[in-house]
Amino acid sequence: VPQTVELPAVAGHTLTARRGLSLLLVGGYSPENGFNQQLFEYQLVTGTWVSGAQSGTPPTGLYGHSAVYHEATDSLYVFGGFRFHVELAAPSPELYSLHCPDRTWSLLAPSQGAKPRPRLFHASALLGDTMVVLGGRSDPDEFSSDILLYQVNCNAWLLPDLTRPASVGAPMEESVAHAVAAVGGRLYLSGGFGGVALGRLLALTLPPDPCRLLPSPEACNQSEACTWCHGACLSGDQAHRLGCGGPPCSPMPRSPEECRRLRTCSECLARHPRTLQPGDGEASAPRCKWCTNCPEGACIGRNGSCTSENDCRINQREVFWAGNCSEAVCGAADCEQCTREGKCMWTRQFKRTGETRRILSVQPTYDWTCFSHSLLNVSPMPVESSPPLPCPTPCHLLPNCTSCLDSKGADGGWQHCVWSSSLQQCLSPSYLPLRCMAGGCGRLLRGPESCSLGCAQATQCALCLRRPHCGWCAWGGQDGGGRCLEGGLSGPRDGLTCGRPGASWAFLSCPPEDECANGHHDCNETQNCHDRPHGYECSCKAGYTMDNVTGLCRPVCAQGCVNGSCVEPDHCRCHFGFVGRNCSTECRCNRHSECAGVGARDHCLLCRNHTKGSHCEQCLPLFVGSAVGGGTCRPCHAFCRGNSHVCVSRKELEMARREPEKYSLDPEEIDNWVTEGPSEDEAVCVNCQNNSYGDKCESCLHGYFLLDGKCTKCQCNGHADTCNEQDGTGCPCQNNTETGTCQGSSPSDRRDCYKYQCAKCRESFHGSPLGGQQCYRLISVEQECCLDPTSQTNCFHEPKRRALGPGRTVLFGVQPKFTNVDIRLTLDVTFGAVDLYVSTSYDTFVVHRRPHRAYPATSTPTASPTPC
């Protein structure tokens, strides 16, 4: 099959038909590629795979889910599965929608009622406007026979507790991995696994309105998605049509109160596909916005105030588009995906404790997660991350049990690998639900002491008995001497003997020994070992105390460590820039250097952070800022917004302009005459590049605007040369074009408005003026038209009408009401000559800007018009 993209190896994905024209591949996993985050579409007509950009909040990683296609909304609905999200890999109760025309993902919280329990390896099918979910499991030990019903148009679930009493006939057995098909208004279910493989074919019949399954007013009203109407339970839409009162069901919040129950930004700003259909108008406009920058965000009504409804005494930011949610930033399930664009890092030292809160550990402690690289700028201590370190070795590349269980893992949401004793392979924990179903991996080992080496390699009884099929031949005495052999409860296996008279066999528990004397204990250097009749006990040494959280002995510093950490009893390790027994004395180095000691606070050992001076009080040349009091010295390249590598003070710039031979502005020679970097108030960037200008290279040249921090040429579709410097809007459109209204009014909604400048024809003109194409003045029967390039007013009676100059064009279009008529055009040229072209397509002529000509544009044929 020809492929326009490389299709990765995946399992646990879904492949769903869309209108008989294409197949959509969602999710999947493989040890080599991790979670598949791309959306692949197989074009049935061309026989090719394509993969394009996705918007909204696509799932970061997903497999074992189900997907159905809904024709009326032209959307895919994806439920459940094993999902990686933000920093956790676990079974999912979530429902995603994919609006196919614009590839927009949304995370749909039910408009009413509760979510179902997490579910994976289930099956789904669509009956009318109802998604039916059957079976599956929520954890490794629990299979399900539940049936879930999702009402697409109402965005609501009917859960098993309400619908189970309506079931008649043979119940479905608990199972996973079964197959389902919808035919003629019925569902057929075949096979599956419920501890054993199942051979069965079941048929399920449902009413067109699933609310009719609820037999009583109490059960009906308890569902929140249904209404009791004329003696029957009906969906909100049906009840509204029959005049039972109340509004029809809505898939999205209708009031600020409904917004407030949504707990995440992705759910708050989700767009149900039903609201994206043409013609829905104001009724489908988003009603909610997300307030962020507080420790916990809030979903409020679109016209509400973040300050009054979610006050945390911090300036908040309003988010209107789900793609700008914080959970979408640095969303990646593995190191390669995290670091691909250079804006994020893969680390185990940070952990999320709220929407904007991050905590930092001294050592890598937490699960692998992707974070913004900007956290390094505010970290008070070194952080181990990729980059600059290479990505950790994936579990599947570790060749043996020891290296596997010694590893800290590599996949997001974990910090260990698992060894399969049956497969003799190292596995990521994210792979286990897919690979190890029904015991397919045998015994799974975790932790460095679990590797099943040979029995003979265990030299201590405790280690021997931890290994399968091993027992201990004890020589007797308290020294723990003995030999580890393969065997069982009755003794060593056939052919093996303990080899000493009087030896005893231990298989379930070890005989008494003094582990403290013979070294068969695991007390560390901070602990004392105490022998007990059965085993031993570790206690903290003097100067240490037990940490109830970690279970480790931590040192105690009686004097306290004001600006440092206690690393040994009564011994502090001071933070950078502090000295003294309790780290309470700060060096006089402006927090940029260590000093020689309490008595030598002015003796700065090594200035860091691009500083210099006896007290690290100055910035190095080519760096900007104030180093005093821990201030920052920024590189000129950052100060100049990436548009120059050289910056000096205003006085130094004047010196260089007066005597350029003596005071060179070459970056390699700046150190020869500039003694320190300038302050931000005095700094001036030299030789701004990339179409920028200004003291900080902060402004764009005429005809350019700021896009992602770079000056980009105005994108006016060839109908203007200038635009608003800040956002690229405001092109003074020529050639009978104009700019239509852009979505929303907030900065986040207007971000892409630069793409739509001069993209619409003025009234009475037709065409598609994108990319330099033209707008055509519509003419009708017996209408006066002339070759005046500026006006068509009173063509045949205006003595001062203008002639069509060299290189100028006038474009007319004819749109007959009927296609089976002849059109006759009469053109009179009273003096001079014109070139006339006739075409059946709007995109035949394209404008090329010629800035040094008197006329604004020239049109040249790009297709094959007919010359006359």
Any descriptors?
868 residues, mainly beta, Neuraminidase, five-stranded mixed beta sheet, four-stranded antiparallel beta sheet, 13 helices, 27% strand, disordered C terminus
What do you see in this structure?
- The protein is mainly beta and 868 residues long.
- Among the domains are: 14-164, 6 Propeller (Neuraminidase); 208-251; 256-277 and 285-326, no CATH class; 335-386, no CATH class; 395-409 and 416-445; 467-538, no CATH class; 549-600, no CATH class; 611-699, Laminin (Ribbon), CATH 2.10.25.
- The protein has 13 helices and 67 strands.
- Its main location: membrane.
- Keywords: Disulfide bond, EGF-like domain, Glycoprotein, Kelch repeat, Laminin EGF-like domain, Membrane, Repeat, Signal, Transmembrane, Transmembrane helix.
- Residues 512-550 form the EGF-like domain.
- It is a single-pass membrane protein.
- Report the biggest beta sheet as strand number plus sense, adding barrel if it closes: 5 strands, mixed
The helix count comes to 13
Contiguous runs where pLDDT drops below 50 for at least 5 residues = 854-858, 860-866
Termini separation comes to: 47 Å
CATH class of one domain: Mainly Beta
- Rg from Cα: 37 Å
Strand numbers in spatial order across the main sheet: 7-14-13-10-9
**Helix- and strand-based class?**
mainly beta
Beta fraction = 25-35%
CATH topology of one domain: Neuraminidase
Mean pLDDT: 87
CATH architecture of one domain: 6 Propeller
Assign a percent range to the helix content: under 10%
Tell me the CATH superfamily of one domain.
Kelch-type beta propeller
Tally the beta strands. 67
Global shape: flat
Organism: Gulo gulo (Wolverine)
Main location: membrane
Protein name: Multiple epidermal growth factor-like domains protein 8
Membrane topology: Single-pass membrane protein
